[in-house]
Specification:
alpha/beta, globular, 136 residues, 7 strands, 2 helices, 5-stranded mixed β-sheet
């Protein structure tokens, strides 16, 4: 059930990170900071990657506020490094071994019927107590 109070204190909880940022795809055009909208760099299915390193993700899509923020600092739209620091500081118990990517180019129906259940299952498979969704 969404927005359920935590049953475990955050300092003991296993946290999953869900992002809308796309994995970098060499060869499909500019995906760097300030890149124009690049439909070729979109992804169309839920993906997962390891949380023990910080991967090369990009946000060269139309869905972020280009007036008040930039894609220059990935820590502002993909806080994996900060979550790793929070684990080391004891503010959160642990990260799941994977983070997950949620596609943004879908209809509401496909998001609710396909992507959300897949994300939930992956979080459950990883033993997550809580998920942090960071749209970009």
């Amino acid at each position: 059930m969404p927005f359920t109070p935590l049953g475990t204190p955050l300092a003991q909880a296993r946290v999953a990170l869900i992002t809308t940022a796309a994995p970098h795809q060499p060869g499909v055009g500019d995906q760097g900071p300030g890149a124009k909208y690049n439909a070729a760099a979109k992804f169309y299915t839920v993906y997962s990657d390891a949380t023990d390193t910080v991967p090369d993700l990009r946000i060269s899509h139309v869905g972020y506020d280009r007036v008040h923020t930039t894609a220059e600092d990935p820590r502002t739209w993909f806080p994996l490094a900060r979550l790793q620091e929070a684990v080391k500081a004891g503010r959160i118990g642990a990260l799941t071994s994977r983070f997950h990517g949620a596609p943004t180019n879908r209809s509401h129906r496909v998001t609710m019927e396909t992507d959300a259940p897949e994300l939930l299952q992956r979080c459950r498979d990883d033993g997550a107590d809580v998920a942090v969704l960071v749209p970009s």
